[in-house]
Write a structure and sequence with these properties.
Strand content: 5-15%
Shape: globular
Structural class: alpha/beta
Order of helices and strands: HEHEHEHHEH
Radius of gyration: 16 Å
Number of domains: 1
Number of strands: 4
Strand order of the largest sheet: 2-1-3-4
CATH superfamily: Thiamin diphosphate (ThDP)-binding fold, Pyr/PP domains
Helix content: 40-55%
CATH architecture: 3-Layer(aba) Sandwich
Largest sheet: 4 strands, parallel
Number of helices: 6
């Protein structure tokens, strides 16, 4: 008898890990390039509490992490990601476990290096900024 393999989606994996860590909600400004992810999280019982801007969401998630041991901030690609750099660097400096969930254009959307909204310099600019935070 053949075993049936079940696929675990990224959102389902994240929700299981968040629940295991005792995290019941995240903070953020949901936006394009991650709308499906954020919608799946919400429909699965993991709400993203919307704040007035991304920086406020990151600081709220950082405060949540100090109380509950892990925080989650959800933002859109580039413009949202750049607004959470300050809070992320502060959390890194103080060993506060903060996860930034950010969307990004898919591989097919990057074909031919198009000029897409939110794109700064190249598709990996946001990633490179966050790598610099980690390495400081």
């Amino acid at each position: 008898m053949a075993k049936t393999q079940t696929m675990t989606t990224i959102p389902d994996f994240l929700i299981r890990r968040f629940k295991a860590l005792g995290v019941d909600e995240g903070f953020g400004i949901v936006g394009d390039y991650a709308l499906k992810l954020f919608d799946h999280l919400y429909r699965s019982g993991f709400p993203i509490l919307v704040t007035t801007d991304e920086q406020g969401a990151a600081f709220a998630a950082e405060a949540y992490a100090r109380i509950r041991s892990f925080g989650i901030c959800a933002v859109t690609y580039s413009v949202g990601g750049f607004k959470v750099v300050n809070a992320t660097a502060g959390a890194w400096a103080e060993n506060v476990p903060l996860l930034i969930l950010s969307g990004a254009p898919g591989l097919s959307e990057r074909q031919g290096d198009p000029l897409l909204h939110h794109k700064v310099k190249n598709f990996d600019t946001q990633l490179e900024v966050f790598k610099d935070i980690e390495l400081t």
